[in-house]
Design a protein that fits this description.
Strand content: 5-15%
Radius of gyration: 24 Å
Number of strands: 7
Number of helices: 24
Number of domains: 2
Structural class: mainly alpha
Distance between the termini: 53 Å
Largest sheet: 5 strands, mixed
Length: 544
Amino acid sequence: MSATPTPRAGTLWRVLLSLCASALAYAWVSSDAEEVGITWDEPPYYASAVRIQDWTAEVVNGPDRSGALSAARIEEVWDWGRTWNPHPPVYKEAMALTGWIAGDRLGPVRGFRLAPILFFCLLIGAVTWVGAKEWGLVAGGVAGAALLLMPRVLGHAHIAATDMPVTALWFLATMGTVRFMEDRHFGAFVLAIVSFGLAISTKFTGLLVPLPLVAWALVHNRRRDAATAILAIGMCALVVAYLANPLAWHNPPEALWELVKESLERGSVVPIASYYLGTAYTFELPWHHAIVMTLVTVPVGIAVLALWGAGSALPKFRREPLAVLCLLEILFFWALLALPSSPNHDGVRLFLPMFPFLALLAGRGAAEVASLLRRRLGGAEFVLASTGGVIVFLLPAYLQSVAISPYYLSYYNELIGGVRGAEQRGMEMTYWYDALTPAFFDRLNEILPPDTELATFPSQDYFLSMQGLGRLRDDIQISDSLPSPYYLIYGRRGMFTPVEWRIYRDVQPLLAVELQGVELAGLYRYEPPSPAEGNGGPEEGGSD
């Protein structure tokens, strides 16, 4: 790095760097925002956003505002589709807002997806700012780039669901709280309150924001600061959460209890299956799932920088509060998801808020490498070595992210042999219908004859929604059972029955979505198995 800038220059450079990082993130994600397939959860969220838009119009312009604000009307609008749409509404409110502002110009899908894109851009800018402020511009720039170049995180930035909003809000709430602990900065206090309150009103996960902060305060002997800050922020955040969630307006304790109760009972109400290391699990996965998935889904160069950043900080951890916080955040999510009762399905989705902290450690690692090179090399040699470092650590992640688009959520790194290696080792290759791109539906509409019947696995409702959104022809009759002349199997192998295993392994599809030679989805002509054939399923005892 060059000579230390003045505080004003330093702030200006951090602002410019953060804005550039956010702009780059927006340009990337918006370029293929509609190419990522509509995921399983999105159609009910879209419908909820439309209901929120209509309800808002009733409140603002309707003749019966008191009726619109009644408990019955609020429950009708905001509690719709609770089985598959159970979360508090902030992310749907954001979708309703961006859909209202930009939906006519961008189309409904892009309009609703603008909300997670903006949350992602805010997150990228915030990570860049924090890294640059703590460890310098190199650290900030690499931290922002590292987060942008994690394909799994990048994929979730495209999807109008809970995960990217809660990830951004978790990070902002954490950083705001830390800053308020350190110097009682009023702006940080407001940031922490608003972000924490909105996180609570996005997903149950938001309620857990204070836990790693408590651990961090204990490590750094800041018990009193933590108790005061977290209590003050938490009490005010509950007010924000109350205001943001109309379902709480008439009975706040009940709304909070329902949020906690439904989240703790997900294993019995919706036991979502997963496929992991060749075994199908109905809900709970082995304790090491989150750790392994982190290791095999973060690009190797970024993981090495993060390890370097963490390792070089540990010997002086008393003077590295941010690095220690990042480590505690990572360990918190790994420990949380190792608990027997924790849901742990859908790839890395349920611990997505961990990855900004991993990106910060990568930024710190890059700053350490740059400092080492500067001490040992002259000007021209330093520039050459730094360029080589970027090529070694970040260029592969960039190339992989570009190559895997729009199938970001199927990414695996070199440690497991990429996509093919992960498939051979029994990992879940796809789970959320994101692989069914607009191009796939165009080909499906061409191949299927008029008025034919199509059986689908594992969901029928999803394809009915695709008809409602105009992606699948209306004359196609959707069925959830066989026999049927055509069978569309989505490659969520944790849900396969022996029928799907036999077809998936032994039958050539008419149309397939393939990624690096691995089938993510396929359309088949259905032929019942002969009595002599085996079931083709996984090995005996392979489920839990």
